[in-house]
Design brief:
The complex is a heterodimer. Chain A is mainly β. Chain A has a single domain, classed as Immunoglobulin-like. Chain A has no helices and eight strands. A five-stranded mixed β-sheet of chain A has the order 2-8-7-4-5, with no helix packed on it. A three-stranded antiparallel β-sheet of chain A has the order 1-3-6, with no helix packed on it. Chain B is an alpha+beta fold. Chain B has one domain: Immunoglobulin-like (Sandwich). Chain B is 23% helix and 39% strand. Chain B contains two helices and nine strands, in the order ααβββββββββ. In chain B, a hairpin with a 6-residue loop joins β5 and β6. Classes of the chains: A mainly beta, B alpha+beta. At the A-B interface, β5 and β6 of A face β6 and β7 of B.
Chain lengths: 109, 150
């Protein structure tokens, strides 16, 4: 499988107390484990991103336990109340245990 | 033709009414599976209506990627916030869709994603609040082309 590429759209600056919106997407086929190989008739093994986590300065902000019913290239949009400057860390984990992560800095004025 | 007594008629009517009242839960085995997932989440506690909004298209042309937005009415403070929202699809091969975990840092309990829908069905969002109460909402989405592969 092509290597999954995470993408994040998060603001770089925010006013104190503002609610900021973060959009994330990772390229992943999200194989459900329910599809059959058209030639052999065998089930294609499940291979999905099963966990997404968003942290800010090491603290949990938002996370998702993901089941195969989430579409390919899983997309999540969520919010955070900006209280202090710091760094977002976004982590995706797939069924084979591979993790993908991306960071983004936020300056609070 | 034998005459139906008033008593018999009442009995039949009552039975039919009971059947109708139960039918949403027995529409398919899948709906039952979905209920089982929700029961596990709530620990058998009955969820209240309201507070949760689930935004989805009424008609989804492509079941492979159906946009979904959740919002829960909550102040999202340290002692009053939304802990988790579970999303369940009654007509998919497996009912579980995702569990979203919020925190007081979220500011607002709102999130969006995209999901697969195998066919026309109900989607349920059930929220667990920090005070231990549950709120849920159900929405029907019509699907033109199903999206769970072959």
């Amino acid at each position: 499988m092509a290597k999954s590429k995470p993408r994040v759209k998060a603001p770089k600056t925010a006013g104190k107390g503002d609610i900021v919106t973060i959009k994330t997407l990772i390229s992943h086929k999200m194989e459900t484990g329910l599809r059959k190989d058209k030639k052999t008739g065998d089930l294609i093994p499940r291979q999905i991103i099963n966990k997404f986590m968003a942290k800010f300065n090491g603290e949990d902000v938002f996370s998702v336990d993901i089941d195969p019913a989430i579409s390919a290239n899983p997309y999540f949009q969520f919010s955070m109340k900006a209280e202090e400057s710091g760094e977002f860390e976004f982590i995706w984990v797939d069924d084979s245990g591979d993790t993908y992560s991306k960071k983004s800095a936020l300056t609070v004025n | 033709m034998h005459t139906i007594t008033r008593r018999q008629l009442l009995a039949v009517t009552a039975a039919t009414a009971t059947g109708l009242a139960l039918s949403p839960n027995f529409a398919s085995a899948k709906a039952e599976d979905a209920m089982a997932v929700l029961d596990k989440f709530t620990g058998g506690k009955a969820p209240a209506e309201g507070k949760v909004t689930l935004k989805m298209p009424e008609i989804a042309e492509n079941g492979n990627t159906v946009p979904l937005s959740i919002s829960v009415d909550s102040p999202m403070t340290a002692d009053n916030y939304v802990k988790r929202v579970v999303i369940v699809a009654e007509g998919n091969p497996r009912p579980e869709v995702a569990t979203l975990h919020f925190s007081p840092k979220s500011g607002v309990a709102e999130a969006s994603t995209r999901m697969r829908l195998a066919k026309t069905q109900n989607v349920v969002a059930l929220a667990e609040m920090s005070d231990g109460s549950f709120h849920m909402v159900k929405r029907q989405v019509k699907v033109t082309i199903g999206g769970c592969g072959g």
